[in-house]
Amino acid sequence: MYTDTVIEEKLVHKPKFLGIFLGVVFVILFALNLADTIFGHFLTPVIGDPAQSGLYGRFAVALVLGILFTLNIFAIGFLPTPIQSLVVWLELAVFFVSGFHIFNLSLEFIQSQLWFLLSRGLFTTIYVSAISIVLAFIVAMVGAIAKLSGNGFAHGIASFYTSLFRALPLLLLIYLVYLGLPQMGYVIDAVPAGILALTLNYGAFMTEVFRAGIESIPPGQWEASRSLGFTFGPTMRRIILPQAIPVIIPPTGNSFISMLKDSSLISVIGVWELMFLARTLGQKTFQHMEMLITVAMIYWALTIVMEAIQRRLESHYRTVKVNKA
Amino acid sequence: MNTTSNSQGGDVSDTSQHGSAALTAKGSSDDSIIEMTNVNKWFGPLHVLKDVNLKVRQGEKIVVCGPSGSGKSTLIRCLNRLEAHQKGKIIVDGIELHDHMKEVNVVRREIGMVFQQFNLFPHLTVLENLMAAPLWVRKIPKKEADETAKQLLERVKIPEQAHKYPAQLSGGQQQRVAIARSLAMQPKIMLFDEPTSALDPEMISEVLDVMVELAESGMTMICVTHEMGFARKVANNVVFMDAGEIIENTDPTTFFDHPKSQRTKDFLSQIIAH
Q1: Which of A220, A238, A325 is the closest to B119 by Cβ?
Q2: Counting C-beta atoms within 10 Å of the first and last residue's C-beta, which end of chain A has fewer, N or C?
Q3: ipTM exceeding the 0.95 mark
Q4: Beta strand B189-193 with B111-114: parallel, antiparallel or unpaired?
Q5: Contact yes or no for A227 and B109 at CB 8 A
Q6: Model-level pTM?
């Protein structure tokens, strides 16, 4: 993105902004009444027993927190931009994670289950998603070529497929595949059923992405190729797809990240992936929150890793394009 | 070279009507390699080619010029069937072009085409661009394709760029690669669609030099171009088009010095004015 070359005075260093900010934060905190929380306990020397401090305690806590907040953004304002972003990111993460404190999570329970969650749940989530994305990639490639082929049958089949499977909610599709196929005489295990449903659903969405990617190649490439005597198939395989795939890969990475999370839906048919284990492991001892939050953090970590890979892929293909195009 | 641009007689056959007939129409009355008879083409309601008649004999060089939108690009794009004509007859190298033809790729293999925007394959190196069609269309051995490609790069005077990608070359170099890529298929006819129009002025001559050399080697060429120096130097005939019609089709000397129609005179005065 383009960043302006003129340096303006920083918003967070303008007294007016800081004043308004402090006021707004104070009002919000005052309304929330945080006197009888961990923050109030820190201020016990000033306000006495937080529970008894009344309006004074409420006022004091809101003011102190408001000032700390304001000083914080004022201080962050002095940092260079990338570090600024990092500090804000970390502060938000700490703030968010410290919120789990209210649930009184049992760390021992989490530790006792973590290995199983990772070795079984995470592993299943990843391999189901990975197989599905590879299959969806193939389906989408075939679907996109069929849509562009100019063959009425191929186009009809492909557009019927994308129309139907983009319309079905994934959860519904999972049930239909898992419960429907056995009634048609094909007994299917939960894992293949889940993979099939994910593949069909994502294949339909990615078909459109691939079609757009292929269509983004200038018509001159087709003309040059056809005028050299290439037929449709070789033109696609030798000329168009090698140029379209770098365009297609980044959105495919995006789909993969999204699929990692949507794979949680196949927990409803009893696949032992992360979501399923999160619900069942906590059930015995009613420690639901421990498992749900742990799995939430695992999904988050997974997505951070995938996003990093995605970014590298994107920049890799961008440089390829710069070198070649 | 004889043209009958205004003759309405003869057998006007609507090729789109009967696909099976006359797949090949060998043995036309003379030795012309391209024969367009009363060719008409519409883009929707727009009549872009009106009763075009053109004959080109083997080894002839034709320069097609005219104001923009006059149908000159469409004309040559019809010759390798990148565009379909709706009425009339086009015979190229003994094969008639029509909607139901089976052998369009057989024809296209024999016709090289050079585009205004080069249209090189950006994901292949220069050498691979030259080898692509011989390898994957003609299926000749890789070693042979490699040798031919290198000879052609010598011929267009950029052997040292063989392993670069098109984007790393200047416009003039890219266009020379594009010419070499077409020549790699050893075509009988070369079509040029405004090959120098997208080039910076200082790169035009390097491309024209290659085209002149090609012309001198005896290639049959049809060039849509406004390079009048090139036309004077190599063209057997200059075809002037306006509003989808061939207005004038004559040798360069007559064309430049004694144009018949007023439209030709206007056109010439405009391009020579500066």
Answers
A1: A220
A2: N
A3: no
A4: parallel
A5: no
A6: 0.77
